[in-house]
Amino acid sequence: LGSKNNSDARDVLSRAAADGIQRMTYRQIFTVYNAYVKAFRDDRMDQYMAGHDGTEPLSKDSWFQRIFFMTCMCYWVARPLALTTADGRAFIVANWASKDPRDKPHSLIEWTAEVLSWLMQWLWSFLGPSELRKRYEEFGNKKTEIGKKCFGEREAEMMTLNFLVVDPHLQGSGRGKRLLNAVHNIADDEGRACWLISSGEHNISFYVKHGYRVVGGFELAENNPKWKGPKLMCPVMVREPKATQDADSKH
């Protein structure tokens, strides 16, 4: 599995545990889901991905959406780097670099999560609402295109930040910062950059404070007549490893 990378990650996670940060567990999935729903209730990009037109009152997710999301979270627990604090009410999910051996399944649990994830995606392609399938495909294609455009082959060496969620009642408590730092410490120890797609321009200042910069972006719903809300701009941001930041600051 790459002993140096694994030992570095374990050391960082041990330090993070002293700050109340732990790996996400299966028993926390319902709490994690509820924190996500609360945190993104008014997020325009999330409304688009949930099938709304940007004007109607928000409705609850369908049973299929809830099952799909929770199955994805089971995958996150088993495979990528999923960390939490406040017992699931604040969490972060990041993917290992695709060239990192840790990005591949190794145990029975990890292989089971891989198969379940593939099965849910297959069921989604047949049973999911057509409009939702269209929007997820749009996002997936644009994410792939922007990754290649902004980073090229380097993307395979970078960690990807997928979610950073803090329950609204806990926002301002510093938990988001601590979760980010836990992932950044792993990336810094391994000399890796991190990149993310922000759900809107309103989040840029937060990530800039934590070492990110905007390197590109794309627009969702630009050719979707069913979306009647405002423009959905998705900035792409990158954070270089600390050693690179320190070297750049000297020049």
TrEMBL record:
Q: What is the lineage of its organism?
A: Eukaryota, Fungi, Dikarya, Basidiomycota, Agaricomycotina
Q: What is this protein called?
A: N-acetyltransferase domain-containing protein
Organism expressing this protein natively:
Sistotremastrum niveocremeum HHB9708
Domain N-acetyltransferase, chain residue ranges per copy: 79-233
A molecular function (GO) held by this record is: acyltransferase activity, transferring groups other than amino-acyl groups
